[in-house]
Amino acid sequence: MLKHKIIIILSLVFVVFMTVLFILYLIKDDSSRWMVALGGILVSALPISLLFVKHNPFNIPIIIGFYVFVFCTTFLGSIANFYVDFKWWDSTLHFYKGIFIGFVGIALYKFFIPQGARKDISSWIIFLFVLSLSVTSTVLWEIYEFAGDLTFTQTMQRGGNKDTMYDMIFGLTGGLLISIYSSVQKNHDNLQR
């Protein structure tokens, strides 16, 4: 199956890449970067668990989108210092994350709600589900950044409350766009029946 091959290839490439970075920065005694690389190894291997489920609810663009997010946050953002060098990088990734998690929400909705039952579900329910998933992911990411700054680094929330609010606004905006899309798509599907 093509999805399985993509998961295996991307997981292996990212795990090997992050392992090389982990070893390199461990030797250089750069604790901030080797910890990020170690986290990158773990996160890159997560999709392998999808190989063991009977039905994988995520399509190929979502799987690739996950690895784009991992690469942009761990390598470009933290290791290559894009978070520090480009002030817009963090907010852009929060916007992307809001969109990405919105599409994950749509995939989960289609996976867990049988085709026959979908016609009876309000477009507002889909809108709220997708939006709440995006917002929840934004809040959890901000908690992760806060905890990371308290324990390992002091670089994740350089702007303090202002950074947190911008991140939440951009995450909400990305999620809101996909929530509107899912609601419009649901209404369009209802009109075609």
UniProtKB/TrEMBL annotation:
Keyword Transmembrane helix in record: yes
Keyword Membrane: yes
Keywords: Membrane, Transmembrane, Transmembrane helix
Pfam families according to UniProt: DUF2238
TM stretches of this protein: 7-27, 33-53, 60-83, 95-112, 124-144, 164-184
InterPro entries per UniProt: YjdF-like (IPR014509)
Name of the featured protein: Membrane-spanning protein
